[in-house]
Amino acid sequence: PKVLDKTLGRLHSINTMIDKSRATVDIFNNLNAGFFVSDYFFQVENDAIVTVTLINLSEKSLPCLPNIETGCQIFLSYHWKSNTDDSCSMWDGVRTELPCDIKAHSASVIDMKITSPKKSGSYTLQFDMVLEGSIWYSHVNGLLATKLVNL
């Protein structure tokens, strides 16, 4: 009976993890977002603050606090892709917290932290959101925006 109880306990915890995983993906399902980026001149290996506007075009709010069920939190982030060899120069960009809940059909202006690559060259800066510890928005709905950058 003790072995069976432990096995059932493990099965329960695995099912709980699967349910939480489904709940996290549901946050990005049917989320339609728009994204505008202010002009900014990037320099090699530089930390920058870029003003962006995140527009929630969906029917549900985009929460700024961690999800109560999963503990996962939504952040703005980015990826740097090299245009010369099509490699990803930086996948996990710096995270920027949402300053507040972004209600359905509303927008928020956000100062986003961005660190540029260490080498000069031609890059595509790919803007994205991430549900930390779970999934990237681009894996469900595509990238928010891209910007060609020469460093």
The gist of it:
This protein has 151 residues and is α+β, with helices and mostly antiparallel strands. 21% of the residues lie in helices and 38% in strands. Strands 3, 4, 5, 7, 8 and 9 form a six-stranded antiparallel β-sheet that branches. A three-stranded antiparallel β-sheet has the order 1-2-6, with no helix packed on it.
> Which blocks of ≥5 consecutive residues have pLDDT under 50?
1-24
- SSE order, as H and E? HEEEEEEEEHE
Report the helical percentage: 10-25%
Number of strands: 9
Helix/strand-derived class? alpha+beta
Provide the β-strand percentage band. Answer: 35-45%
In words, what does this structure look like?
With 151 residues, the chain is an alpha+beta fold. 21% of the residues lie in helices and 38% in strands. The chain has two helices and nine strands, in the order H-E-E-E-E-E-E-E-E-H-E. The strands form two sheets. Strands 3, 4, 5, 7, 8 and 9 form a six-stranded antiparallel β-sheet that branches. It has a three-stranded antiparallel β-sheet with strand order 1-2-6, with no helix packed on it. A hairpin with a 5-residue loop joins strand 3 and strand 4. The longest helix is centred in the N-terminal third of the chain and has 27 residues. The protein starts with a helix and ends with a strand. The N terminus is likely disordered.
